[in-house]
Recover the amino acids of this structure.
């Protein structure tokens, strides 16, 4: 979200600060991110690479 | 004990914005003797953003989760409406369209997995209603919710019939009947399956705020004191953006928006802390003050 606002509309990012703080104080957003294990990331990457090599839609 | 595989998705994960839905669901499950077994190393369903970027890959990353669930042999519960739609859609299209099955098979093979189409994807509301039942739930109620007027908001995703939803697609009733089984009053809410704007709130804020205002207008004009929902994104939009609606439209809405599992937990007398009530942006305490012990 932060990246989206900074790339598309940095001023809107500033406007969203109170909302972000509100969500943070209500424990609705976290600065931590959950992570998959390294073998699972590798497996997912292999699946995505194969899928993306076959074209986008139908 | 009834057992299911569990896909929390990014919203209900420990660091997600809908973690109160996850926490309250697990608390209610314990009380109802249900076990959700979280898939190990699940991945994001991709939701709308990835689907619009690369549809094939979107099917394949969902299929990875289905393949993991198939190993466990239980139905897969995805409480988030968006996760439910994308996992269900992959499941349905995998069986219906040979070209999609072939692409998914190849991609999964590259990751050392395979999927045979044997997983049933379900919503948590469907599990409570069809596997546990209204009567069993009503028999476990410990608190008196009578007089509490509740607007049941399903959102637009989980009711889509093409992906196997069992409730009525335009005028669903599961949550209303469940609310009544808990002893509260489910008020008429004609916009119960209307869109809240979903993630468009980020890029099309004005349009989404209008949708949220219409939902609040309808619920409040029908007498709602609380709204309950089964979709984490709907909950976030209607709860967290109420102040923005008030600023834009000069309104004064303060309608608490809970997950239906939080209302169940309150009815069962579970500790508020386990239900994540403090995570509601619009405080729920005043509206819920009338909940008393069952006499």
């Amino acid at each position: 979200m932060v990246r989206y606002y900074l790339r598309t509309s940095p001023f809107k990012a500033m406007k969203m600060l109170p909302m972000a703080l509100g969500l943070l104080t209500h424990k609705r957003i976290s600065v931590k991110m959950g992570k998959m294990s390294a073998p699972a990331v590798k497996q997912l990457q292999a699946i995505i690479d194969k899928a993306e090599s076959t074209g986008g839609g139908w | 004990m009834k057992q299911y595989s569990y896909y929390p998705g990014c919203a209900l994960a420990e660091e997600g914005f809908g973690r109160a839905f996850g926490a309250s669901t697990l608390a209610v499950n314990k009380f109802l003797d249900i076990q959700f077994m979280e898939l190990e190393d699940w991945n994001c369903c991709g939701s709308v953003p990835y689907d619009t970027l690369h549809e094939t890959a979107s099917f394949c990353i969902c299929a990875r989760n289905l393949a993991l669930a198939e190993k466990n042999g239980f139905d897969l519960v995805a409480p988030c409406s968006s996760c439910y739609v994308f996992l269900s859609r992959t499941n349905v299209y995998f069986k219906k369209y040979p070209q999609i099955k072939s692409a998914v098979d190849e991609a999964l093979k590259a990751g050392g997995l395979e999927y045979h189409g044997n997983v049933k994807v379900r919503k948590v509301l469907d599990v409570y209603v069809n596997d546990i039942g209204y009567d069993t739930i009503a028999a476990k109620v410990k608190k008196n919710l009578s007089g509490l007027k509740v607007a049941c908001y399903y959102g637009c995703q989980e009711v889509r019939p093409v992906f196997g939803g069992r409730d009525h697609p335009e005028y669903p009733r599961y949550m209303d009947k469940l609310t009544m089984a808990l002893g509260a009053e489910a008020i008429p809410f004609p916009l119960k399956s209307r869109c809240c704007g979903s993630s468009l709130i980020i890029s099309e804020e004005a349009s989404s705020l209008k949708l949220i205002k219409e939902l609040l207008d309808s619920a409040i004009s029908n007498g709602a004191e609380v709204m309950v929902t089964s979709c984490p994104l709907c909950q976030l939009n209607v709860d967290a953006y109420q102040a923005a609606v008030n600023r834009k439209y000069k309104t004064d809405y303060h309608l608490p928006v809970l997950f239906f599992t939080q209302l169940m937990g309150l009815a069962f007398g579970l500790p508020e802390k386990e239900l994540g009530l403090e995570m509601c942006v619009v405080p729920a305490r005043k509206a819920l003050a009338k909940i008393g012990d069952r006499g």
In short: The CA atoms of residues 239 and 257 of chain B lie 6 Å apart. The beta strands of chain B are 2-6, 34-38, 76-77, 121-122, 143-144, 149-153, 185-186, 226-229, 257-259, 292-293. The mean pLDDT of chain B is 94.
